[in-house]
Design a protein that fits this description.
Layout (H helix, E strand, L loop, with lengths): L14 H28 L5 H25 L11 H36 L5 H25 L1 E2 L11 E2 L2 H30 L6 H11 L3 H15 L6 H25 L2 H12 L16 H4 L5 E10 L13 E12 L16 E7 L1
Antiparallel strand pairs: 1-2, 3-4, 4-5
Helix pairs in contact: 1-2, 1-8, 2-3, 2-8, 3-4, 3-5, 3-8, 4-5, 5-6, 5-7, 7-8
Length: about 350
């Protein structure tokens, strides 16, 4: 390895701080993904978007393992205080995490696009999202290819004297292109829910809430910009120290993206938990679904039945079925005496009974 001068700040270890950040946000990503997948499977609505987010979360957990190996070898410390073997192995594990970072970010964005397609899959929207997903693939593959081909042989990445490498600027340019498109895709995925929900008959506050949750992914945008800036300015020979800063922002970027994708499902999860906690013997402030037969709906003799229907969307911002939004209709059944009969009406019946009929829109 190259000769280094003693650092001014001494033997400082930032590796522990990074691992704490990575583990905390990794745990949040894992918990939110587990809740999302559990609800989807129970409701038999597991889709390609859920698979993509699950895959990204699984790769993130694998990356955490390699992060642990990287920092066990001394990442987060100045290379001056590490042996040559420690420097080499730390850099080797760091390059492995870079492969995983590119895959996680790309797969997560694709999962968000597939999620939006489950809400609306008509008109110009599918073409827009499929084009966006294609761009994610085309900007991710060059980074992986350049990372693999910039040194011959490959292990010259962490052992410079073993071979020759391209200029570092080639890899930095690829990262800038990937980050620029990643920022663009973040903005598109955050704005598209506004367009999709614009004509849906739900309250304005609910629309704002859902769009706000989707905008959590914009935190990943800021993290990506910082990561790209640090990568482009990484001219120092003290790689085990400088790459630690890049790894921190990379971990925040991928976890913010996963958490933002899962928070978009928060209302559907809330509705499911709310219904699950509603016990049969407990009176609910929410209308209960009733499936009544024709005989049960038949009015007593001498009475007329009037049905007043009010249509409203309920718990439907996040689709509960593929490519569909559920709408619930409240039906109020009211009994009134017929004027052509003199016999007093019976007090029995279903006066005031309210029930719901579900259909697809």
């Amino acid at each position: 390895m190259q000769n280094l001068e003693p650092p001014v700040d001494g033997d400082v270890n930032r590796g522990t701080q990074f691992l704490i950040i990575a583990v905390v946000f990794g745990a949040l990503s894992t918990i939110t993904t587990a809740i999302r997948i559990t609800v989807r499977i129970i409701k038999r609505q597991f889709g390609y978007d859920d698979f993509a987010i699950s895959l990204a979360t699984g790769l993130m957990l694998i990356e955490l393992v390699f992060n642990g190996l990287e920092y066990h070898e001394g990442a987060g410390r100045h290379a001056y205080y590490l042996s040559e073997r420690q420097q080499q192995r730390s850099l080797m594990w760091n390059y492995v995490t870079q492969y995983l970072l590119f895959l996680i970010i790309s797969i997560t964005k694709i999962g968000i696009c597939l999620f939006i397609l489950r809400i609306k899959n008509t008109g110009w929207l599918p073409w827009c999202l499929y084009t966006l997903m294609g761009g994610l693939v085309l900007t991710t593959l060059p980074c992986i290819i350049i990372l693999s081909a910039q040194c011959q042989p490959l292990w010259a990445l962490w052992t410079p004297e073993a071979g020759t490498c391209w200029s570092r600027d080639v890899y930095n340019d690829a990262i800038w292109a990937q980050v620029a498109y990643s920022i663009f895709s973040d903005l598109v995925c955050s704005l598209l829910p506004v367009v999709v929900l614009w004509n849906v008959q739900v309250s304005r506050n609910l629309k704002i809430a859902v769009c706000g949750l989707m905008s959590v992914g914009l935190l990943a945008t800021g993290s990506a910009a910082v990561r790209a800036s640090l990568s482009g300015n990484n001219k120092s020979k003290d790689l085990t120290w400088n790459l630690n800063k890049i790894s921190v922002w990379g971990a925040l970027e991928e976890n913010f993206a996963i958490i933002g994708a899962n928070l978009a499902m928060s209302r559907a999860i809330y509705v499911y938990v709310r219904d699950l906690r509603q016990s049969p013997g407990r009176k609910s402030r929410y209308p209960q679904r009733s499936y009544l037969s024709d005989r049960q709906l038949r009015p007593p003799t001498g009475w007329q039945r009037k049905i007043y229907a009010s249509s409203k969307s309920q718990d439907s911002v996040i689709p509960l079925e593929d490519s569909a939004i559920k709408k619930t209709t409240d039906l109020s059944v009211i009994r009134e005496p017929r004027h052509d009969l003199h016999k007093a009406p019976s007090s029995s019946g279903l006066d005031g009974r309210t029930f719901l009929v579900e259909d697809q829109v």
